[in-house]
Design brief:
Layout lengths: L1 E14 L2 E6 L2 E7 L6 H12 L4 E2 L5 E3 L7 E6 L20 H17 L4 E3 L7 E15 L3
Parallel strand pairs: 3-6, 6-7
Antiparallel strand pairs: 1-2, 1-3, 1-8, 4-5
Length: 146
């Protein structure tokens, strides 16, 4: 799995002009699923992100995790994280097929919710508009293959 995790003050995803998911402070997670990914990989990634300490403490140091700031999570499926960029026109054959990717996307969100967090989300496979107010900015890339 690949995840781009951005610390945000707020974020939302809109589908067909309607807000589908929205959060205040927390993480916007763009999540891509690879063909070799499993539920165990999704759970491990969710655990790592949920315990990530990138929110500032009283001394201004990134030392607090999502639970310590009362944060939420917005997850948006993003198969383009597996793009093959060897040519000018990206290929997407390295991304998992929808019959594998969608259940793992949903499993990842459930794993985050199992940690006690509110999870908003987009709609798998939909044309979505994502808005965010990045905080910092702090943006991190996770790749479970590495």
């Amino acid at each position: 799995m690949r995840a781009v995790v951005t610390r945000v003050k707020e974020a939302s995803v809109t589908i067909d002009g309607n807000v589908h998911g929205q959060i205040g402070q927390g993480y916007l997670i763009l999540l891509g699923v690879g063909p070799e990914d499993t539920e165990a990989v999704a759970e491990k990634l969710a655990d790592r992100i949920c315990h990530l300490r990138v929110f500032e403490d009283e001394q201004g140091k990134m030392n607090r995790d999502l639970s310590q700031v009362g944060g939420s999570v917005l997850v948006v499926s993003q198969f383009t994280l597996y793009a093959d960029l060897k040519s000018r026109r990206p290929g997407f054959s390295h991304a998992a097929k929808p019959d594998l990717a969608k259940p793992l996307y949903e499993h990842f969100m459930q794993a985050v919710a199992d940690h006690g967090f509110s999870v908003a989300h987009g709609e798998f496979g939909a044309d979505m508009q994502v808005s965010s107010v990045n905080d910092g900015p702090v943006t991190l890339l996770y790749d479970t293959d590495r």
